[in-house]
Amino acid sequence: MYRKHLQVSMASYTRRTVLGLSVVTVAGFAGCGEDDGSSADTTTETQASATPTPEPTATSEPTPTQTPEPTPTMPSSLSIDHVRFCAEQPTGYRQYTEQPDQTYRPGDVVWIYLEPSTVGTEPAGDGERRFAYEVSWTIYTPDGEALDTITRTFERTVVESTDFTTVFLVLNFSPSMAFEPGSHRVEIDVRDTIAGNEASQTATFDVEPELKQASEPFEVPEILFTAGEATGYDEYTPQPNAEYGPTDTVWYYYEIQGMHYRETEDAIRTNISIFETLTGPEGSIWAENKIPVNNEFSSDTDPSMLYLSDRLSPAEQWDPGSYTITLEVTDGYVDETIEQTGTFTVVE
Fold it and tell me: Which stretches of sequence are listed as region Disordered (predicted)?
């Protein structure tokens, strides 16, 4: 059986582009170990040995062992490591859910996880140490315009037994309006305010266009059998009684309404897939096919006017009787599948 698939979409309309503004909040950071509750006695005492006939003698006072004064920790360099875009706020050291493909929807909060390679510390008294970072990050739009720059200081005092190799920082960026679709650049600067070291890193994330729906509901109203290929949206010649001869090519036309789509400056993209089953006389399956679908259209396309014109041709000839085409149409953007059937008859 020979098959040809055609897809046409007509009509133009006016586009509207929304640029996003932004408000930024700071998530904070963690990753520092807790005190294990143990303590060490660093004072020792020397005592004189007893004798059978003690004589009064002068003795020296016990001398405690001296504890060295705490000193600052001053690493010589700093880098920004393990930068990850996350789907939600990280909960601990390398405890996060990565955002798939670093791609967010408009309006999503963008979470960024990162780790400073070194930590400068200074004594804070009572067996504790302090460390601090000044962090500045700027987000740029797809056009290279600086959307906002934020500077925050992260500071914490922890017990001396803390594992400083597990320090991490979390940034977030929450837009007050939808992000503009496209690739956004983030420039991050970190300064260790105690050691004086600085580091920079650049990362990118994508924002997909807003998901829209052409109309409601999502449906294929009907399958129409035609005398030939449709010439445009709702432009076709109906085949009388949907009846064909044994060697005729069967043309049919249908519209997909209410599909979801994403719009950019250059294109409109859908995510439609179609599976077709042809059932012949007496319920026999003549064909099962995944129909190839073009899901990218020019930016002036009207997504509410999508139609498909297709044909079936017999290898030799059709058996007389009734045939049913069953379409399963899936909108991948919302994972919804609808079904429609149409029947034609082959007469001798």
Answer: 32-77
